[in-house]
């Protein structure tokens, strides 16, 4: 699902002159995306993705930059006619505490709204982040689309410790 091209600028807090820019990812972003996702995957926080898969799915991703440097990413994946999943939200240390994650999530949420999709979900360890951004905790079992799309291939399938969150957009 392609993400609409849009730039979101936000002045950084505490008088820092740097601006956060969130934009649609391009093939030039594959390597920093791969490296970030690989780092998270090694810690068991995200599922790994190959460079080839990222290249094929690049239109699903947005990236965040500060002063032209890659600091974060996120993606949106359609699970059904009325449901999308937020995936692969990650930040480098220099992007944390500046509202970058919320800006990424805002851009992904706006894309889901633009497409008329009423529900956006995620499986996450960062529950507080999603709660601050208008999501609620729900039971994973209400998302059979997710279970049959990804969970069947996950090594944690029978002992999943991620928390499901949902936001109704309409």
Task: Supply the CATH class.
Answer: Alpha Beta
Strand content: 25-35%
What value does the Rg take, in angstroms?
15 Å
- Going by helix content, strand content and strand pairing, the class is alpha+beta
Order of strands in the sheet with most strands? 1-2-3-4-5-6-8-7
Q: What is the molecular shape?
A: globular
Q: What is the number of helices?
A: 5
CATH topology: Aminopeptidase
Structural overview:
The chain is α+β, with helices and mostly antiparallel strands. The protein has one domain (8-168): Gcn5-related N-acetyltransferase (GNAT) (Aminopeptidase, 3-Layer(aba) Sandwich), CATH 3.40.630. The chain has helices at 30-42, 51-56, 100-114, 127-132, 144-149; strands at 8-11, 19-24, 61-66, 69-80, 83-91, 119-124, 136-138, 163-168. Strands 1-2-3-4-5-6-8-7 form an 8-stranded mixed beta sheet, with helices on both faces. β1 and β2 form a beta hairpin. It is globular. 32% of the residues are buried. Mean pLDDT is 85; it is low at 5-17.
